[in-house]
Design goal:
Residues 3-109 form the Epoxide hydrolase N-terminal domain. The protein is α/β, with parallel strands linked by helices. It has a single domain (3-367), classed as Alpha/Beta hydrolase fold, catalytic domain (Rossmann fold). It is built from 15 helices and nine strands.
Length: 368
């Protein structure tokens, strides 16, 4: 296993090609007169693409990203990209691994990470197949990523004990870390992808069933994007890998839907951040490989009982409205921290970094 320092450095030819493609974007007419009713509003997309092509300063964004110490590690023959921030007072500092989801990136965690270094070392990996991290050599599962992260934290970075935090895919990875490695994982903290249990032995309560029915109804309205990525990822990837406007539309559709933004995307995401994330996906050609965890999803198995200390700070997004505490308690036998702040959605670490920093510190502080 090797580790080396890494800086992001996109070639001028990549940026020129991107701007030229953006300048040739063709736009559709809206399917509905209501703003964003049928997906990304074509008028907003035109405005964002014009900003990306003309005003957005990638070199300034690149410098901001490179202000965070980044590395590439070889884990089981595969490349893993990560940010690594050391605690201001190293003695007794608990390491934390923060894991993002889809269609996100390590950028999601960069607002909260500096707020944690007073007490913690912070490691922010890019998920396999995202940006600068290689796809795994076997089917892509949350358990498999947890095994990679454990090797990164213990075998590569030399930590004997660490905490884990994440949401969405990162929440699933975090739970598997706690289930598989209780001897080295001090605790797990999730904001979404909260596991539910097998109900064969203990049927759902009326409150639990009401939530499960709500979730199923929400999925019927929301899951169109995932159906194509589960069944035909290469088809949609071909379009998005060739059209940067299509790529950013695919991403911001979920940023608006899943953020706690009241329908106003830029309440949570300024154009510079949106263009930064989209440029990273574009330049690395990784939108298609980011779909692999959808295509391989049937290989996932239910998370077994988790005995390490656990915390939930519940995402304020439609999928988690009404989630009763009793459901995660079926999986987490030591649920020590339960919080429903009513602020911050799917990308909570970016949307509410101060809130997340307080929640992480309140939970992991006593475990240090």
């Amino acid at each position: 296993m090797t580790i080396e320092a890494f800086d992001i450095s996109l070639g001028d030819d990549v940026l020129l090609d991107l701007r030229e493609r953006l300048s040739r974007t063709l736009y559709t007419q809206p399917s509905d007169s209501a703003y964003w009713a049928a997906g990304v509003d074509p008028g907003y997309l035109r405005e964002l693409v014009a900003y990306w092509a003309g005003e957005f300063d990638w070199r300034a964004a690149e410098a901001r990203l490179n202000a965070f110490p980044q590395f590439l590690a070889e884990v089981n023959g595969r490349k893993v990209h990560f940010v690594h921030l050391r605690a201001e007072r190293p003695e007794g500092a608990l390491p934390l691994v923060l894991t993002h989801g889809w269609p996100s990136s390590f950028v999601e965690m960069l607002r909260v990470a500096p707020l944690l270094t007073g007490r913690f070392d912070v490691v922010i990996p890019s998920l396999p197949g995202f940006l600068f991290s290689d796809l795994p050599g076997q089917p892509y599962t949350r358990r498999g990523v947890a095994e990679i992260w454990h090797e990164l934290m213990t075998g590569v970075l030399g930590y004997e004990r660490f905490g884990a935090f994440g949401g969405d895919i990162g929440g699933g990875v975090t739970q598997w870390l706690g289930a598989l490695f209780p001897e080295s994982v001090a605790g797990v903290h999730v904001t979404s992808a909260v596991s539910t249990a097998d109900f064969s032995e203990r049927p759902a309560t009326p409150e639990e069933q009401a939530y499960l029915d709500h979730l199923a109804a929400y999925d019927e309205r929301d899951q169109g994007y995932s159906e194509i990525m589960w069944t035909r990822p290469d088809t949609i990837a071909a379009a998005l890998a060739d059209s940067p406007a299509g790529l950013i539309a695919w991403i911001i559709d979920k940023y608006r839907d899943w953020s706690d933004c009241d329908g106003d995307l830029e309440k949570r995401w300024d154009k510079d951040t949106l263009c930064t994330v989209a440029t990273l996906y574009w330049a690395t050609g990784s939108i298609g490989s980011s779909f692999r965890q959808y295509y391989d999803y049937p290989n996932n198995r239910p998370v077994p009982p988790i005995s390490v200390p656990a915390a939930i700070t519940l995402s304020n997004e439609p999928a988690y409205v009404g989630l009763p505490r009793s459901l995660p308690e079926r999986v987490f036998s030591d649920l020590r921290h339960w919080s429903n702040p009513g602020r911050g959605g799917h990308f909570m670490s970016h949307e509410e970094p101060e809130q997340v920093a307080r929640e992480i510190t309140d939970f992991f502080g006593p475990l240090s």
